[in-house]
Every structure is written in structure tokens, then in C-alpha cells.
Amino acid sequence: MTSSMLRPLIYLSVLSLLAGAAAQIYEQQTINASSVLNSSCPFTFYGRTYQQIYVTISNDTFAICFNGFYDPQTRGDCIVGPQFPFNQITFYTASYSYNYYYYYCYMVLYTSDYYNYNFSYTQFVLYNSTTGASVSFYEGNKGSWVYDVQVNGVTVDKLNINNSATSYYSYASVDIRGCRHSGVVYKPGTAVTSDPTTCYSLICDTSAVLRNVTCDPWERCQGNGICASTACTVTGPAVIDFYGRLGSIQDRCTYSLLSRLSGPSFQVLANFQERRRKDVSFVDSVALVLSGSGLFINLGQGGTVQVNGAPLALNSSALVGGVELFKDQSGVTARLSLSNYTVSVFFNGYTAQIHTAGPAGSPLSGLCRNSSVSLSEVRSAYSASGCEVLYNDTADSSVNCSAEMQRCNLLRASPFASCNDLVDPQPYISACVATMCRYPSVDELRCQFPQAYAGACSLRGGGAGSWWGAVGCASPQAYCPDRLCSSHEFCARGAGGSVCLCRALFAASHSSTGALGAPAVCSSNAASIALARCLLEERNISYSALHLRDGRCRGRMDEQTHMLTFSFDTSNTCGAVITSNDSYVTYSNAITDQDNSSDVIVRHDQVYIDFSCYYTQPQIRSISFRVKTKCVRLSDALKW
Ligand SMILES: *[C@@H]1O[C@H](CO)[C@@H](O)[C@H](O)[C@H]1NC(C)=O
Ligand SMILES: *[C@@H]1O[C@H](CO)[C@@H](O)[C@H](O)[C@H]1NC(C)=O
Ligand SMILES: *[C@@H]1O[C@H](CO)[C@@H](O)[C@H](O)[C@H]1NC(C)=O
Ligand SMILES: *[C@@H]1O[C@H](CO)[C@@H](O)[C@H](O)[C@H]1NC(C)=O
Ligand SMILES: *[C@@H]1O[C@H](CO)[C@@H](O)[C@H](O)[C@H]1NC(C)=O
Ligand SMILES: *[C@@H]1O[C@H](CO)[C@@H](O)[C@H](O)[C@H]1NC(C)=O
Ligand SMILES: *[C@@H]1O[C@H](CO)[C@@H](O)[C@H](O)[C@H]1NC(C)=O
Ligand SMILES: *[C@@H]1O[C@H](CO)[C@@H](O)[C@H](O)[C@H]1NC(C)=O
Ligand SMILES: *[C@@H]1O[C@H](CO)[C@@H](O)[C@H](O)[C@H]1NC(C)=O
Ligand SMILES: *[C@@H]1O[C@H](CO)[C@@H](O)[C@H](O)[C@H]1NC(C)=O
Ligand SMILES: *[C@@H]1O[C@H](CO)[C@@H](O)[C@H](O)[C@H]1NC(C)=O
Ligand SMILES: *[C@@H]1O[C@H](CO)[C@@H](O)[C@H](O)[C@H]1NC(C)=O
């Protein structure tokens, strides 16, 4: 390296400039033959600390060594190269510290020619600070100068100067930080040993400290450079990330489980929803999103699959935009495989398992990467507004927490014990206890945790055999494959099979007003009202018997939304009372299961829901002509 750097003794004057600093320059020594010199401060050379230097001066060789005079046979730690012209060599050490914050130490050897102003001088500076360590070489004599920096006699670096006729002097420097392992030096930030099968590596970290590290799970490389990962499991509210760390989601938002944001990028999202309790959420659907092609594949409840919003009839397998979809009785899997990475997403209605493999160092983020990351960082833009509001519910007295804990701990017993070495059961047990001690043990919930654990075990190549018998469960099956519920409902399993029940928040928002559905809606010549089937069923109202005052006007059940809609208009009023004045048209009708709707005597086991709404007449003389609809909430009109 050729440069016109400042002359190196400038360092000395810097020492006296900073206030609050403690600087010390030790007495100088001059030598003209091989000598042992003491440093005033300990000094690190590639991971080994020394306090003395051995300067070897011979007719053809100059060497600075740390563990004895230079001798090629003893294979020492040395800086060795050609002899340079000198009369005597001056040595001094200096240390400097600043409020204990910064510390450095110099050892300087320079030839007296330094002061001759003809620049025919040589200088070596060994520098060791809290932030680094280096050896620098300044040479004013013309020609090519190469000094080998050796550890155990092996050259690990070179100080290389070609001092041309036009430059006064040149400068070269090498970083002498490093780690030693089995007599070999490793540079900071390099791997010393790495064992792809155990995933444990010894590294020389960037501060030149040897460290044992566990590689990222997806950096468990196979021979072909593809690196497998462990699974990430989301079961109910619990997220068990790639490292086996447990997190939990309490709200009803959509979260990024995994994002690979560069290269061929994908995202795995999970939406959480409440079921019977407002304060416990469950993973309700998972989606694989490919940002390149804009493909959005959603795996929903009941084994349903939607591709970009449209339902996909999936019997056993299909290929959609490069994504393979498989369905069997245990659930649905979406798998994307490209040349050097794969991601697979499994969902069974309760549990999602994500497995990815890719090149080492793939930049991944999301809850599967770190389940304790701040939720606002991983909340997706697909989240519904207000989803992060948390609710409380009264404790469920039917829950026997100690009995549930006993069951959850079966994951340490046979037949799961054979998995315990492959997958730590503790996060699964903790997730099981956290949920089962708050939520009633219904809807096959308690079988989900052993199933999730057995699934994670089989993703790691293990198996718990026919585990289900040991915990009183059926063989793994997707949850409620036979029942499609709407978005405000969830599937509940009872002795009589599957039914759609209202989600707790939907039910609570209606029970506070007594309403059984959406408010009635009026337009200029028609009106309609929609009732939620799950609210009717909660009250044991048989919706097929319901009609408006005119018994011929029955409701229409939407098979997707599970809303029962009653409509009428001015040409077919269905028994409505329609009144109007200059400002409003008011429609009043009633929904009932009574045969004679004009009968004013309402029997207790019969249903009578009256409702009305009004429509604001357009102001004929108004300059800004507007149509407005106003609705009257179906107030506490349910009568028995
Ligand atoms: C070397 O130094 C010693 C004293 O340190 C001195 O006596 C001797 O003359 C010097 N030799 C040369 C060649 O300068
Ligand atoms: C250098 O240190 C060694 C051991 O600490 C001591 O024996 C020797 O006298 C010291 N030499 C000088 C020149 O201070
Ligand atoms: C070093 O050089 C001197 C003078 O040129 C000579 O007397 C001496 O023998 C040489 N030593 C070696 C080891 O070559
Ligand atoms: C520089 O000074 C040294 C010692 O004073 C002398 O030996 C050398 O010849 C000088 N070099 C030049 C280029 O003048
Ligand atoms: C500098 O030396 C001290 C010992 O005095 C040592 O603890 C430290 O690690 C060294 N710094 C570097 C960067 O090698
Ligand atoms: C040193 O540099 C000069 C001029 O740039 C060049 O001619 C010469 O070959 C170089 N010598 C070596 C050993 O690199
Ligand atoms: C790294 O782990 C191995 C095996 O567990 C142990 O022998 C070694 O001392 C550890 N090394 C460091 C630097 O912690
Ligand atoms: C799915 O299976 C049903 C009956 O098993 C069959 O009628 C239907 O055509 C199949 N659909 C597809 C897309 O294969
Ligand atoms: C992975 O594959 C992509 C193209 O599919 C390629 O651009 C990339 O270099 C590959 N990476 C590795 C580490 O093989
Ligand atoms: C996970 O995220 C938390 C919160 O941001 C952070 O404190 C923690 O260090 C992260 N863990 C890892 C391994 O990245
Ligand atoms: C739920 O109740 C607990 C204990 O009464 C209270 O600390 C917490 O703030 C409540 N949370 C919400 C969201 O109301
Ligand atoms: C709860 O379960 C434990 C263990 O199964 C049982 O001993 C206890 O009687 C149960 N408690 C209640 C209140 O049922």
C-alpha cells in the first residue's frame, strides 16, 4: 500500500490533547542487537495475549516475535522479514484510556532515521484497543518490503510495501485479531467447525471470541446446499416457533407467520378468531401468499381452499400456480417447491404446521422466526379493523385445571416419549395447559395438542405410533370437514354431530340489544330484514317455520352467510303496514311462526318479532337531491 499518510509519531501528540484522558508514555529504550523488550500493557496477537516481544536483529533478517527469538524451527508467533538499514532502533510503549470507555496500547519500534528528514526510516507499530488490534509497518527506504505475519510458523497475513522512487514512505497494516483453535488461526466472523447434522458450530465471532452457536434451523444443510428446517406449529392461540419458543395470540388479527422478503418471496399468514369465549382466540385460517405471482391461497375451516378468493373444489390433489395442494382426512397441505427452497403449510382447522427449507442465510421473518416479537411488527394489513381489541370473559367453572394439566403432561409419557429427544414437549405442554385451563374441553380441543406434537415429531422424522388411543382420541382427522360455517360462526362438535354456533363476540354484540340479526333496511318501495341462523338456533327457534305477517312470505336462507332474509315491497306487502307523510315512508311488519298472524294473543312457545324501518322521502324542492335510508334497530322485540 502506497500512501502519503501522516507521519506515525503524530500518535504521541494526540495523547495529550483529550481532557479527561489518562495517557502514559513509558521510557524509551534503544537497541542495536537482538533484545527482549517489555510492554507496559498486555497485548493480543491472534487471540493470544503477550507482554513481551523478542526483537531479532541479524544481517539479513528482522523479526518481532512474542514467544522467543525468531527461529524457523520453533514455529513461533512472529512478524518476520528482511533487515533494513539502521544505526539504532528506539522502542517505547504507550497506553491511553478515556473514562474506562476507550483503551488502547501501542508498542512502537522505529529507526533513528526518522529524524533525518530524508525519510529513510522504518517503523513498526503494534496496536491493541478495545475495538481492534493491528500491526502497521511504515517504510521510507525504497524498494519492495514484505514481512510475513506468522502464527505457529504459518504465515497468516503479509505486510507488503513497494516503495517507489516517487513516494517518501509507504504504509501497510493488518488486522491481528483472530481466534485460535487446534493451533489454527481463524479470522473474526468465520466458522471454525460446523456440524450440519447436529447444527452446532464453533465460530470466531466478529469480536474475535470463540463461540459455540446453534445454526438457524433452516441452515441445517444437506449435501446439496439445501438446508432443512424444523417445523413451526400454530395450534389454537399458541405459536411455537422454529426454535421451540412459545408465543400466544389473544386478539383476532391476521399475522405473518413467515415472510421471505427477498429472492423468490412468499408469506404465510394466519388469521385468529374467537369461538366460545371472547378471550381465547384460535387459528382460524392460514394463507400462502406468493408476492411474485400475486397468488393468495387460503386454507380455511372445514378443509376449504380458496384461491384468490374463489373456492376451489379439492378432492385429493391439485396444482395451482406452482403450488401443490393435497387433501386427505387429516387436513389440507399447500406446498411450494422451487429449485432451492420449499415451503409447506398444513392446516386441519385447529393446527397449522409450517415447514420450510432453503439456502442458508435466507432472510426470513414472522412469528415462526420469533414468536415473541412485538405483534405490531408482524400484524398483517389483511387484519380486520379493531381486531386487536382484547376482551375478558368470566372464568369457566366447568374447567378442572389440574385434570387438564395431567392430560397435557402425557406428552412426556409413552408413546410420545420417543419424540421427546427430537422435539421438546415443554412448549406444547405449556400451550396445552394455557388453553385447557381457560377454555372448556369441548369440540375435540384436548386432542389438538397431542396431535400438534405428534405432527411436529413426524416433521422431524420421528413418530409416536398410534398415539391417539393412549390419550382417548380418534385418529387424526381434519376438524369439522362436514360443516361449513359462516364468518360469524364456528363449528361445534357435540354428540349429535357438527353444528354452527355464533362466535362469542357476535353473540355478545346481539345479546346486549336482543337483536337477532342485522337492522331492517328500507328503500323507497321495499324493505328487508336479515336474521342470523346461529342466533335463532341459540334460542331454539326453528327458522323454517318463520314467515312475515302474510304466511306466504317466508325467509330466504343464504347458504354462505347463514342469514335468513325476509323481504317485501309495495307490490307485495306481506302484511306490512306502510304509512307515509311528506318526510317519511314507514314500513312495519313482523316475523312469526304463528299460523294466524293477525292473532294478537301471543302464546309463550311462539315467536313474534315485530320490526319497522322508515325511509326519508327525497326533498322535492331540495337543491342537493339525496336519498337517505334510516333504519330502526330491531329492538327488544322478541316475544315468547
Ligand atoms: C550498540 O549499542 C551499544 C550500547 O547499547 C553500544 O555500546 C554499541 O557501540 C552499539 N553498537 C553499534 C554498532 O552502534
Ligand atoms: C522485563 O520483564 C521481565 C519479567 O517480567 C523482567 O525480568 C525483566 O527485567 C524486564 N526487562 C526490562 C528491560 O524491564
Ligand atoms: C554479518 O555481517 C558482518 C559484517 O558484514 C559479518 O562480520 C558477520 O559475519 C555477518 N554475520 C553473519 C551471521 O552472516
Ligand atoms: C538518510 O539518512 C541516513 C542516516 O542519516 C543515511 O544513511 C542515508 O544515506 C540518507 N538517505 C538519503 C537518501 O539521503
Ligand atoms: C487488547 O488487549 C486486551 C488486554 O490488554 C485484551 O483484553 C483485548 O481483547 C485486546 N483487544 C483486542 C481487540 O484484541
Ligand atoms: C514496485 O513498483 C514499481 C513501480 O510501480 C514496479 O515497477 C515494480 O515492479 C514493483 N515491484 C514489485 C516487487 O512489485
Ligand atoms: C463448544 O462445545 C464443545 C462441546 O460441547 C465444548 O467441548 C467446547 O468447550 C465449547 N467451546 C466453547 C468455546 O464454548
Ligand atoms: C371430486 O369427487 C367427486 C366425487 O367423489 C366427483 O364427482 C368430482 O368430479 C371430483 N372433482 C374433481 C375436481 O376431481
Ligand atoms: C436459489 O435459486 C434462485 C433461482 O431459483 C437463484 O437465483 C439463487 O441463486 C439460488 N440460491 C442458491 C443459494 O442456490
Ligand atoms: C425476539 O423478539 C424479541 C422482541 O423483539 C427480542 O427481544 C428477542 O431478542 C428476539 N429473539 C431472537 C432470537 O431474535
Ligand atoms: C381483564 O381482567 C383482568 C383482571 O381483572 C385485568 O387485569 C385486565 O386488564 C382485563 N383485560 C381487559 C382487556 O379488559
Ligand atoms: C379435578 O381433577 C382431579 C384429577 O383428575 C380430581 O382429583 C379432582 O377431583 C377434580 N376436581 C373436580 C372439582 O372435579
Produce the secondary structure layout:
Layout lengths: L9 H6 L5 E5 L3 E3 L3 E11 L2 E10 L3 E5 L12 E5 L6 E10 L3 E10 L10 E8 L3 E7 L3 E9 L2 E10 L6 E6 L3 E3 L2 E3 L3 E6 L4 E5 L5 E5 L5 E2 L5 E2 L2 E5 L2 E3 L5 E3 L5 E7 L5 E9 L6 E10 L4 E5 L5 E3 L2 E3 L4 E4 L2 E6 L2 E7 L4 E6 L3 E7 L6 E2 L9 H4 L22 H8 L17 H11 L11 H12 L29 E6 L2 E6 L1 H8 L9 E2 L3 E7 H6 L17 E2 L5 E7 L7 E4 L3 E9 L15 E9 L11 E3 L7 E2 L1
Antiparallel strand pairs: 1-7, 2-7, 3-4, 4-5, 5-6, 6-11, 7-8, 8-9, 9-10, 10-13, 11-12, 14-15, 16-17, 17-18, 19-20, 21-22, 21-34, 22-23, 24-25, 24-35, 25-26, 26-27, 27-28, 28-29, 30-31, 31-32, 32-33, 33-34, 36-37, 38-39, 39-41, 40-41, 42-43, 43-44, 44-45, 44-46
The structure holds 2-acetamido-2-deoxy-beta-D-glucopyranose (12 copies).
Number of strands: 46
Briefly note the structural class of the backbone.
mainly beta
Query: pLDDT under 50 segments (min length 5)?
Result: 1-20, 221-229, 620-640
Count up the domains: 4
Overall shape: elongated
Name the hetero compounds present: 2-acetamido-2-deoxy-beta-D-glucopyranose
Strand content: 35-45%
